[in-house]
Design a protein that fits this description.
The chain has 381 residues and is of the alpha+beta class. It is 27% helix and 26% strand.
């Protein structure tokens, strides 16, 4: 009954964050205790089967991940879950026990194998990131040998059946252990599990089926691409083996910072300084745009430091839908540090003028002070 199953971590006596080595060590201990050949109690068979089942799941990262998320239901497929193919627990006790204690059951990669993925860092200018470009770069990759076309054999020759394993790719050895005699299956050391040997290897690739080559690749970068984004070029990685597909090339983008602009998503930020006169009276000042054009920006009179003026559609294109962001101009009012006698006189005169006309809601505004005192008095009452 599935609902009555015990927790796999509890069965092996390990924590939920146990490492793979912890799981193997716990299984070895439990298996030695409950193996039917050693433990003659009536519950030994069921307990060993339970231990075996828990081990099969927890030692496999993918099966363990699904078990952690969905529990027994998803593993068994009883709740419409995907289940785990190959986690059948009907195998004989001797098979699993011998495989675990008698050596390693090494899986052989004799079929088509996919080539490895390659990674490349590509540095581009801010302008190229903004408007897109086609960039060329060089990679070193494994390519199928043109002399033998991946067969690894010299011209006019063919592979031979491995005499050591007779084409099986495996060697079976009988050994005596703690529980008696068992069979240990290991990969053939002569053919490395392939079941065949190459008597006359290709002189170009030395029987490796592939050779290293330098290749120049071109990639189209879309407008609006950002620093840290990654592109994939399918099939441009290392060539596969035995007819397997080639790997991919992953390109990570690094964008050189701009002299004036800072990027915030699809928006651009431009810091602009104005003097006191320009901030007070207003002005029209030229500013650069990302496309190397010049825009005449109108500064309204009375502008304050920290004010942001927005130019809609003057930012960067979005890498997906190509709509452009905005240009955000952050204004900073610069106060002069040194004044000559004439300028000081003008500021003193201006200060006297402004002193008679306090700013709105200033502490010197008597009407504002009166309202403030009134509010305080109301609270006290």
């Amino acid at each position: 009954m599935q609902g009555a199953k015990r927790d796999y971590y509890e069965i092996l006596g390990v924590a939920r964050d146990a490492t793979e080595e912890d799981v193997r060590r716990a299984f070895r201990k439990q298996a030695m205790e409950w193996h039917p050949d050693r433990n003659k109690s009536t519950e030994a068979t069921d307990r060993f089967k339970e231990v075996n089942e828990a081990y099969q799941v927890l030692v496999d990262p993918e099966k363990r991940q699904f078990y952690d998320r969905f529990g027994h239901a998803d593993i068994d497929g009883s709740a419409g879950g995907r289940g785990f193919d190959g986690v059948g627990f009907s195998a004989g006790f001797g098979d699993i026990f011998d495989a675990f204690f008698g050596g390693f059951d090494i899986s052989r990669e004799t079929g088509p194998r996919r080539g490895a993925d390659l990674h490349h860092a590509l540095t581009i200018s801010f302008q190229d990131a903004a408007f897109g470009t086609e960039s060329e770069f060089r990679v070193e990759r494994q390519e199928t040998c043109e002399s033998c076309m991946g067969s690894r054999c010299a011209s006019g020759t063919s592979p031979s059946v491995c005499e050591n394993c007779r084409g099986s790719g495996q060697i079976r050895r009988a050994n005596s252990g703690f529980f008696g005699q068992f069979v240990q299956i290991v990969t053939c050391s002569v053919c490395r599990g392939e079941g065949k040997t190459i008597p006359n290897p290709c002189p170009t690739c030395e029987g490796r089926a592939r050779v290293k080559q330098l290749r120049d690749l071109k990639v189209k970068l879309p407008p609006g691409i950002d620093d840290g984004m990654q592109l994939r070029m399918r099939g441009e990685g290392d060539a596969g083996l035995a007819g397997g597909p080639s790997g991919d090339v992953y390109i990570t983008i690094a964008v050189v910072p701009h002299e004036f602009f800072r990027r915030q998503g699809d928006h651009l930020i431009l810091e602009m300084t104005v003097n006191v006169a320009e901030a007070t009276l207003g002005a029209t000042l030229p500013i650069p745009l990302v496309d190397d054009q010049v825009h005449e920006l109108k500064i309204p009179g009375g502008i304050q430091s920290g004010t942001i003026l927005k130019l809609k559609g003057k930012g960067l294109p979005n890498v997906s839908h190509r709509r452009r962001g905005d240009l955000l101009v952050e204004v900073t009012v610069v106060t002069p540090r040194q004044l000559n006698q004439k300028t000081r006189g003008l500021f003193e005169e201006l200060g006297q003028e402004l002193g008679d006309k306090p700013a709105k809601k200033s502490p010197r505004d008597h009407s504002w002070i009166s309202r403030f005192k009134g509010a305080i008095g109301t609270q006290k009452n």
